[in-house]
Queue: 2 jobs
Job 1
Amino acid sequence: MNALIGILLVSASTALSFSLKPGASTNCTITEISQVASTVKSCQDIVISNLVVPGGQILELDLLPGARVTFEGTTKFEYFYWAGPLIRVRGENVHFQGAKGSVLDGQGALWWDSKGGAVPGKPYMFEIDVTGGLFEDIFLLNCPHHCVIISSTDLTLDRWTVDVSEGNKNNLGHNTDGFDIIYGQNVTIKNSTVSNQDDCVAINRGQDMLISGMDCTGSHGLSISVGFSKHSFLHNRVANVVIENSVLRDGDNGIHVKTHTDGYLGEIRNITYRNIRMSGIRRFGAQIQQNYPSGSGPPVGNIPITNLTFSNITGTMSGKNSMPVEITCAENACIDWSWSDVSITHAAKRSTCSYVPKGFNC
Ligand SMILES: *[C@@H]1O[C@H](CO)[C@@H](O)[C@H](O)[C@H]1NC(C)=O
Ligand SMILES: *[C@@H]1O[C@H](CO)[C@@H](O)[C@H](O)[C@H]1NC(C)=O
Ligand SMILES: *[C@@H]1O[C@H](CO)[C@@H](O)[C@H](O)[C@H]1NC(C)=O
Ligand SMILES: *[C@@H]1O[C@H](CO)[C@@H](O)[C@H](O)[C@H]1NC(C)=O
Ligand SMILES: *[C@@H]1O[C@H](CO)[C@@H](O)[C@H](O)[C@H]1NC(C)=O
Ligand SMILES: *[C@@H]1O[C@H](CO)[C@@H](O)[C@H](O)[C@H]1NC(C)=O
């Protein structure tokens, strides 16, 4: 008993003297990776300044509640063959900001081989696992693989730039998804720009999301992709999503909604796409398919799509493979879709629809 109290007193006084040591908790600027662990434990207002992150190490920002973090200068991630992520944020009500001119440089070209995820060893870049968060003005350059992976509640991302345009060179960049929401509850992504070689935004699971003011170049589109779980209905559910006021240029797809035939049961419900303008799209203006991943096999109705609303979806296509709209639905698994002002022109092929939404002439 006495020994135990003794230990508690000693450890309490050690902690006290440590935290009162002059300077120990006052300098909250991180310039070297060795400063990260202690700084995030003691600081509410952190600056990450021209940090070089060694390959194979996560820049792990496990923050105090309410912490603020500012990126300054170039945060550079060195080469290593691993899964990543390069940076991971966890916390409650955190606020991130990129200072003017700041860049997070993933140096993707060191990994790119045109094979993407098919050849392992390319790290995911920026993982966000928070409850309450605002991330503003972040510039992400050259992700080795997927760029931003979100698993969060009450999160807003505003004014991001994800620039992987260098990956277009010799088609080396591949699977460089912009924003992947693997779980979201009340997540907003707005006024952001993505130039990459896979989905601009992909939503896998969750509800109450707003994607607004996206500018996507070269992407595979604004996507909803559901059915990764083989066991859980809740993991295969996306509901109450608005995707709006966005522009897509020179990509494979504009809008893409797909359900995985090899997944468990689930649902996609109450989704609205509105005010989307596309140009130079090469494959599908809008593709909604219940036969993913084969793309050619029979559709399966394990994940019905209910109340899919399109309004004011316009633009142009280019190239011999272009088709405005392809809808591949299993019987009775596409329900109550209502579309208006969907007009995608200059396609080489005609639309095909196994289900015809109300208000649309296929
Ligand atoms: C304190 O911050 C400065 C930047 O303002 C940084 O260069 C320096 O490494 C930090 N000093 C210590 C002792 O951590
Ligand atoms: C949704 O998240 C935002 C922060 O991104 C927060 O301000 C807002 O209160 C949340 N809404 C609800 C209903 O919790
Ligand atoms: C995007 O930015 C524009 C111009 O600053 C602003 O008017 C608009 O409200 C923003 N969009 C959202 C969803 O906040
Ligand atoms: C449909 O989604 C919108 C946008 O998220 C939401 O405001 C609305 O309440 C949802 N409707 C139902 C019936 O859940
Ligand atoms: C249709 O969407 C475009 C953006 O793609 C927007 O500029 C236009 O105002 C929208 N039209 C209506 C009637 O909302
Ligand atoms: C779903 O569609 C049905 C039929 O059009 C409509 O009555 C209902 O209000 C819609 N629900 C939502 C959430 O949009």
Job 2
Amino acid sequence: MKTRGFIDGEYQDGELRGMTLLAGMRGAGKTTEMDRLLQTCSGGVLFFDSLSKHAGVLKGYVVVHQPGELKAYLTRNHKKRFRILYQPRTGDFDAHFQAVCDIVKAFGWMIFGIDELDKCCGPRFGPSNMPRGLYELVNYGRHAIVSMLATARNPSRVSYDFVNECSYMRLFHMQNRYLKYFEQFIGTENVARMRSLQKFQYLLWRDGEEHAQICGGRRL
Ligand SMILES: Nc1ncnc2c1ncn2[C@@H]1O[C@H](COP(=O)(O)OP(=O)(O)OP(=O)(O)O)[C@@H](O)[C@H]1O
Ligand SMILES: [Mg+2]
């Protein structure tokens, strides 16, 4: 899966296509794997850095702090190759995230990565557990030519609708209580295989395939 473009109804770039969730406990390697996946992309990438702490880790990204700056940068780089790191350092976190989602939807043609998705979701947004802008991307992002990936430590805090729309999951070592949560999506047998994951390994699950694959592992 190396071609970039809107192919068979979904935007794909590098190893990414549609929606992907990377879940697992702290330090399991989620953000590092997200960085690797984004490096496989040849087109536009926007990384929403919920904790505003990855500027030193992600190489070659332009750091942006405000929606206006983001809009101006995307206007100049629309459909081209770009690497943007959005850090909501000051002001209202939810307002930043909402504005970024609206801009992503308006411009399209990009991979939208969200680090620590648990921070962007929650009951404060009503029954969908996620802000309107994200809801629209989850449900209609395909039409906006946007594919997404997100990391989360605590899957029970992430909107169910988000997880349910994911056709790929990369599941790292996690606490037993969270394994139970994933059973409804990936099945009992695949959950059982997660118990044998070594440090930095993850289970790669693809919708429609019965047997998920164990991938990753120590490499740095
Ligand atoms: N495959 C790997 N091999 C060796 N070291 C790794 C690997 N993946 C990640 N690391 C290292 O492990 C540490 C934790 O990785 P990372 O920040 O990606 O974890 P995380 O799951 O995102 O953690 P958190 O939930 O705290 O955000 C980092 O120092 C990173 O460089
Ligand atoms: Mg992380």
